[in-house]
Amino acid sequence: MIKKIMAAFTVLGFLANFAAAQDxxxxxxxxxxxxxxxxxxxxxxxxxxxxxxxLPPAFRYVDPEDAEKILVQGWGNPPGNKTLGMIFPAxxxxxxxxxxxVVVTYEKDGHVKDDDADSIKYDELLKTMQESEQxxxxxxxxxxxxxxxxxxxxxxxxxxxxxxxxYWAKNIRFAxxxxxxxxxxVRVLGREGVLVLNAxxxxxxxxxxxxxxxxxxxxxxxxxxxxxxxxxxxxxKVAEYGxxxxxxxxIAAKLGLFGKLFALLLAFKKVIxxxxxxxxxxxxxxxxxxxxxxxxxxxPTDTPEQ
Length: 306
Hints:
- The protein has nine helices and ten strands.
- By secondary structure, the protein is an alpha+beta fold.
């Protein structure tokens, strides 16, 4: 399970909050947490106006601030995730055990040429990705995360040259989990970068996710002037990678393992509503160098997990 470093304290202020919370821990109920989230529907203009989501009734959206609350407070992931928001199925609460969501980001690394799309041998690419796991896992362990193994394609990569959209799915096993994680990826290529949509769920949800993510693929579009065919070879930057590297995660290798692919760190969700004292003590022990997997004394014992 991903280490649950959950807090909203600054470096200068968290000790004072921690001390105060020890006296009067205030737990956040699931009802209060959900009430603090503003769900949006219909046509969404993503931050920066680079792309839109034309949501059908089956989906809803939350902005980057609420997405961070769900990722950190609801799902127990590390803070500091820079997103354009998240998409959720409308009929499931994001903190239910069977919930799943799509993390939306934008990578402005340049125009990705798709010249290599027809020549990629995905079986060979998979083998190369698996062979790189040892070095990647050494870095994960240094950063306090469990080893991650790519079992195989849950759905082999497919690229549509007409829409300039790419999608694929990975079957991933984390060392500290008995169940495998499904990481479903959609990439929309644009004029100056790539719209990234990552869905993280359990492998036993693969049939549902496959169907739903095809819909996500269809309603995600760049705005006029930012589309793939708007590229100007005289003024616009070309990315240093192509389709194969986009699938393999070559961006992360250049920018630091956790620099761009933070969604891969989202393993199985654990709905945690810690008392603020518990969150403070977790951070305190982390910075003191104690083991991050020691149980927090104020963590609820009846926490549901997946």
